[in-house]
Target: ABC transporter ATP-binding protein
Amino acid sequence: MAEPFVELAGVNKRMKRQTVIEGLRLNIRQGSIVALCGGNGAGKSTILKMIAGILQPDSGTITIGGVSWRGERRRYAELIGYMPDDFRFSPGLTAFETLSFWASLRGLPKSTAQEALERVGLADTGSKPVASFSKGMRQRVLFAQAILAKPPLVLMDEPTNGLDPYWIDTFVRQVKELSAAGQTVIFSTHQLQVAEALADHIALLRGGRIELEGDATEIRQRLGAAGLQAAFSEWFGISSG
Ligand SMILES: Nc1ncnc2c1ncn2[C@@H]1O[C@H](COP(=O)(O)OP(=O)(O)OP(=O)(O)O)[C@@H](O)[C@H]1O
Model:
């Protein structure tokens, strides 16, 4: 089997004297789409932030294409596009200015900002302040930002929050295109129908540990035939949002 592109081994993280992530091991091959699912506080955002290099594990290793954050920070950062679960946009900056700023940080021409806006259906509203946008529109700006530089690894925290059904379908299609182009995608979600539609590997987390992982069919076989949503609700005692 080919070497995994993203490798997490023995990753532990404590915050405020509480164990948040314990013994995490994940091997992700290039071009795959991985969904991190779990209830509130399961550790999804923490894992994504550690892979993004925003948080550091207390122990264990994380590498992307053999590169570690500790070893080569700049090279590591260039491999990643990260979509946070929430972001405070600069008041007054338009969507185009916001994306142009991010493009310039990546050394990309302004034309990439316009292309990105078109991709997420915001070309007509590019001259309006992002701060005035709805939640779903802001999510689309954040998605555009994460994929702007065509990074080998795209990390997304709750990317479909606030998206209407049309944009969820469009998002699913666009993420599949990223994967087909060889980009690797890791995202968190409470929307299990999105995980089922999109991910070729699903990790179910509880209390900072992976309880179960596999493709949607394997997980359904393990948890029952009623679908991932029902199994998940029963197992984790939550209903998804
Ligand atoms: N800055 C912090 N300080 C202390 N504890 C934190 C901090 N951030 C997260 N935690 C704790 O880490 C655990 C995992 O949080 P995390 O945000 O990763 O969960 P999550 O699965 O993304 O949850 P949600 O679905 O609610 O977004 C929780 O118990 C949380 O209280």
Summary: Residues 91-150 form one domain.
